[in-house]
Structure formats: structure tokens, C-alpha cells
Known about the structure:
- The protein is mostly helical.
- The chain is about 70% helix and about 0% strand.
- It has 14 helices and no strands.
- It has helices at about 10-25, 30-35, 40-55, 60-70, 80-90, 95-105, 110-125, 135-145, 150-155, 160-170, 180-190, 200-210, 215-225, 230-250.
- Helix 2 (about 30-35) packs across helix 3 (about 40-55).
- The longest helix has 22 residues, at about 230-250.
- The two termini are about 40 Å apart.
Amino acid sequence: MKKPDVMTDDARAQIKQSFIAERGYWRPWTQTMLQACPAFVQQYARYAGYPARTGPLTERMVELIYIALDSSSSHLFEPGLHTHMKRALEVGATQADIFDVLHLVAVQGLASVCQATDILAELTGSSADAVVDEALRARVDGLGPAHALALNSVARLDPRYAEVLLDFVEQGRPGGGLTTAERSLVQLALHSCFTAFNPHAIRQMLATALSQGLTAAELLQAIQLGAHLAVHGTALGTNVLREVQSSDIDSAHPER
């Protein structure tokens, strides 16, 4: 069994400084954890900061990926979104970049719709004889792979839905935002994150990204950036424990 942490105030202060340097923030949960388990704060900062510190992606790109992960409907972590959006603007991201990321966040759910439709078509055979219009087929082939969208069954079962879906993908983004390769990095991070892990979409985005000239190191960094979102559960638990303990103290001393 690991012995309780014994640490001086000066050592804790040094851990706090290192954490802020690595992660760019300090919050009530980290302060509580610093007192209860300083080793967690120290080692988490090293682990969580490693991908951003050592990978080949620019700081701007790293922050844009963090924005995507924190704003995704599978996570919705507003404190982190504030931190990373502010930092992204400081390191050169534009408003168009950020809205392009937010567009991809909205597109994320479409991959699952396409996969579910494939299963429906397989089990019912309902799209076997359907013929897809050539113009729609060209759009599906052109836009689908770049967004991990397997649209063949969708186009056969409901071509009008496929058209409006593609309109949103193609025309719903701002002008002057991310490059096509940068969009692939963001989408890879979204589909790789444990909060919405999608192996089929990951495979498609990796194939697309490699064809665009992105390197394995760049792709690995985008994948790694999502893992430490799990600490937001730790933050929630730490904050609740602090509140519960504070409430118990107040209840024990009502005259205070």
C-alpha cells in the first residue's frame, strides 16, 4: 500500500507552478487535490502535457483540437473550452478557424447515422435495388471520405436526406478557416476520443489524412490529445468531495 503523501509547502508550491506551466490553468479542484494527493497533480501535469509539449503539431493546432474535444456533444466541458479558446486566439487562431472547428463538432454525429443506416440496409435489403443519381453519387464520393461518412446506404434509402446532409457539410462551414488536412486532424481527434470512440470513422479519417500528406507523428499526437479528458471526472469528484466535507463541517458547527 502506498504511504500517505508527506510534502512541504514549498514542494507543493513548486508542483503548482509546474502544473500551471504545463496545463495553463489552476482551479479549485487542483488546489484540493494538491493538498490531498500532490503526486497526482505532479504526475498528471507531466502525462497530460506530454502530447502537446512533444508532438509536431503547432500550438495553434493543439488548442483547436482541444476546443473540438471540449465542445463536442459527447463532452461539453465549458471550463476547458474557455481556457483553450482563449489560448487559441492568443497563439494565432482566427475566428474562422474556431467556427470551422465548431462546424466539425456538429458534423461528428453524422458518421454514426451513416453506420446505423448501413446496418439497416444490410438487415432489410431495402437499398439493394435503389439507384443513386449520378450527381448525388459524385457528391457522396467527393465529400464522404473527407468526413468519415459512408453515405451509400443513406443515398439509396433517402436521397433527399443525403443531399441536405451534404449541403450542411459543404456549405455550413465558414470561409477562410482550416485547411483540409487540419480538418482531418480535428475529426480524427473527435472520433478517437474515448467519449465518442468510433473505430470505423477513425480508420476512414486515418486513410484520408495519410493521403493528404499528414505524418504518423502528427496523427498520433491528435489521437493522444483526447485521453486526459478523463480527468474532468476526477475534477468533478474532487469538487463534490470538497463540498460534502465543507457541508459536514458546517453541520457539526451550526453556530459558526
